[in-house]
Write a structure and sequence with these properties.
The structure holds 2 protein chains of 2 kinds. By secondary structure, chain A is mainly alpha-helical. Helices cover about 75% and strands about 0% of the residues of chain A. Chain A has one domain (about 55-330): ABC transporter involved in vitamin B12 uptake, BtuC (Orthogonal Bundle), CATH 1.10.3470. Chain A has helices at about 1-10, 15-25, 30-45, 50-75, 85-105, 105-130, 135-155, 165-170, 180-200, 200-210, 215-220, 225-250, 260-270, 280-300, 305-330, and strands at about 175, 180. The radius of gyration of chain B is 20 Å and the shape is globular. The chains are: A mainly alpha, B mainly alpha.
């Protein structure tokens, strides 16, 4: 150990492996931003030019993914995972699209948010009170939500073409020709999550429970209350993401957001949040979501099929998770 | 097991041995009782339910049954595999694409190749889990992307074909109209692969690693090798499930079915502990029959089949809740 310290003292500290490791461990967002920059440069050299229009497209696609990845980040900080976000997001978007004609937008949105909150609270009660593994609990709830959404669809006899125009503006609209409206939804959410995790007692509780549940309990944290609130927040965020997605794609179906579930986990993992809990943050997750979106854009403009994207995403998750595990364990 | 019971105590007669056996397998016995009640209920709501219903049940249930066996073996060894559905899709399309318009003899080679492919897919999953030390859930979730993507690369849309002998192996009755070939095949596969393995040194080390890795390691079990082996067995059964899909539908579908989630539901319902080291493959098989029968009953009751999805989710959650409550009481009492 002392040998290594001597070596770092004589050489430039930025060139040693230990320094790199520390960089990845403590400030994962810096290498991530560099990676994002490299990808953008690659894009510029390759298929098309990088301009404001392209940036707008990327941001619009990244916003719902980043919100859903926010759900995963919060859940993963406590050592959990929320796989019901896809079903909740799809169902909320679908619910609004089917109700907006009869009840008007505010009421429809309110009903969808309350429904999502109920699902989230059930998730939280299952995980927090009954100690069901979060993976099983949220997978099971996603089946329940999907089933009820399908029943609702059959009863309404309508496939939900009626995405409200307000959602279309939020999902796909552009303000002053450069700023996507979805950023207006996203920025307050992102600030709330970032500040909530850094500055509030609740945020610290999430880290504490994920890092060492026994120590957290002995210091007086009531894990079950924290978890119920957490999964409630997660479901409401998923519902908001569902609104943005249905506006972005201008359709509302009961399986619309399913394809976002695994990328949302991927974005959080790439952003440096450990699935074992206690480590990570939302900043890295946002950059992770941007990286995935840029890769998707790069691949589709190069003409690769969807299949290649899936394979690549999977490989990236394993590689990045392995790298983080190595970096954090060997230090 | 039952032969050894009388030697334990002089007073224990055959009845006591039977009681002890029931108590040891209380969960499985409970499942069987539930299944019997469900069968009676099915017969009540649909008096014509009979041999044809059993045949359909076996054919539609065999892919899930094989997926559940795959999941059970991996979970017993302390892991979990969320890529089973994707592996089944990949092996199914590889089989369907290669058997299409080929001779019946060539199909034998294809089937053997697909089984080897399953072993290889499982080996990749297991090696990644062991080498990267990333949690099983993350690795297999990521690999489910990879395998599903590969399946789409093999076949873009549902297609291909199946050799006739493979279809005949799964579809139809064997002798008596009440005995479905799919059920017999399942029993044969389990008897040929799982029973010898579970009795061997490797099988016991699967349970050892699943119940306590450190203790297994200190007793000289190679933990890494055992985990890779469990994933390989899981891959093999997933490949069998993929072949069953191809055989029962006559083609390959590149989009993974709901088998990953349902396999988790089936093993939990079947008494396999998600913490590892506890359970077998018989319970999950009974659970698969129950899950399939519930779906059938829903259609008989003219309920929306989508409610079956709800029921499956609720069963999954309910059973896990019950399991953790029982464990909680056990640890207190």
């Amino acid at each position: 150990m002392s040998e290594a310290v001597g070596a770092t003292a004589t050489r430039n500290p930025w060139l040693t492996a230990a320094a790199w490791r520390a960089l990845f461990r403590d400030r994962p967002i810096i290498p991530l931003v560099v990676l994002l920059g490299l990808l953008v440069v690659l894009f510029e050299l390759g298929p098309s030019s990088v301009n404001l229009n392209w940036a707008g497209v990327v941001f619009r696609a990244a916003v719902p993914l980043a919100i859903l990845a926010g759900c995963q980040t919060l859940a993963m900080l406590t050592g959990g995972i929320d796989l019901s976000v896809g079903a909740v997001a799809s169902a909320s978007g679908f619910l609004v699209a089917t109700l907006v004609g009869d009840l008007g937008l505010p009421m429809a949105v309110l009903i969808a948010l309350v429904a999502a909150l109920v699902v989230g609270l059930v998730n939280g009660i299952g995980v927090g009170v009954f100690r069901v593994h979060p993976l099983i609990m949220t997978l099971g709830m996603s089946l329940v939500v999907l089933g009820f959404a399908n029943v609702w669809q059959v009863q309404r006899g309508q496939t939900g073409a009626g995405t409200p125009p307000e959602f279309r503006t939020i999902g796909a609209g552009v303000f002053l020709e450069i700023i996507p409206y979805s950023l207006i939804v996203f920025v307050p959410i992102a600030l709330a999550i970032l500040l909530g995790l850094r500055r509030t007692g609740y945020g610290r509780l999430l880290y504490a429970i994920g890092d060492n549940p026994i120590a957290a309990r002995l210091s007086g944290a009531r894990a079950w209350q924290v978890l119920i609130v957490l999964y409630g927040i997660s479901a409401v965020l998923a519902a908001i993401a569902g609104f943005v997605i249905s506006g972005l794609s201008n359709v509302a179906s009961v399986t619309l957001a399913d394809s976002y579930v695994l990328p949302s986990v991927a974005a959080a993992v790439i952003g440096g949040t450990s699935i074992l809990g206690g480590r990570g943050g939302f900043g890295g997750t946002i950059v992770g979501a941007l990286i995935l979106t840029v890769i998707t854009s790069l691949l589709s403009s190069l003409g690769y099929p969807e299949a290649v994207r899936q394979v690549l995403f999977g490989a990236i998750i394993v590689a990045v998770a392995a790298a983080y595990t190595r970096v954090t364990q060997e230090s | 097991m039952s032969a050894a019971a009388p030697t334990l105590g002089a007073t224990s007669g055959p009845l006591d041995a039977a009681v002890a056996a029931v108590r040891r397998n209380a969960w499985t016995v409970g499942l069987l009782v539930f299944l019997a009640i469900l069968l009676v209920f099915t017969r009540l709501i649909q008096p014509t339910y009979g041999a044809i219903g059993v045949q359909n049940l076996a054919i539609s249930g065999i892919p899930l049954a094989l997926a559940a066996i795959a999941q059970a073996i991996i979970v017993i060894a302390g892991g979990i595999d969320l890529s089973i559905g994707s592996m089944m899709a990949l092996t199914s399309v590889v089989a369907a694409a290669n058997m299409h318009n080929q001779s019946e003899e060539f199909a034998v080679l294809v089937v053997l190749g697909v089984l080897l492919l399953g072993l290889a897919l499982g080996a990749v999953n297991g090696s990644l889990v062991v080498i990267t030390r990333v949690p099983d859930i993350v690795v297999t979730l990521a690999m489910s992307f990879v395998w599903a993507g590969c399946a789409l690369l093999v076949l873009k849309t549902p297609g291909g074909g199946s050799a006739q002998w493979l279809k005949d192996l799964v579809i139809g009755p064997l002798g008596n109209e009440w005995i479905p070939k799919a059920g017999v095949l399942l029993v044969v596969v389990v008897a040929l692969i799982w029973i010898p393995v579970s009795r061997s040194r490797l099988g016991i080390s699967l349970y050892a690693v699943g119940s306590n890795q450190l203790a297994a390691f200190r007793s000289g079990v190679s933990v890494g090798r055992t985990k890779v082996f469990s994933y390989m067995l899981g891959g093999l059964f997933s490949a069998l499930g993929g072949l069953a899909l191809t055989a029962s539908t006559g083609r390959g579908t590149p989009v993974p079915g709901p088998y990953t989630l349902l396999s988790v539901a089936a093993i939990v319902l079947g008494g396999v502990s998600l913490a590892g080291g506890r359970g077998g493959v018989f319970g999950p098989l009974v659970a698969v029959v129950i899950l399939q029968l519930l779906r059938t009953d829903m259609t008989f009751l003219r309920l929306d089949t989508n409610l079956a999805t709800v029921a499956q989710g609720l069963i999954l959650i309910g059973v896990v809740m019950l399991g953790s409550l029982l464990q909680f009481r056990r640890s207190r009492g």
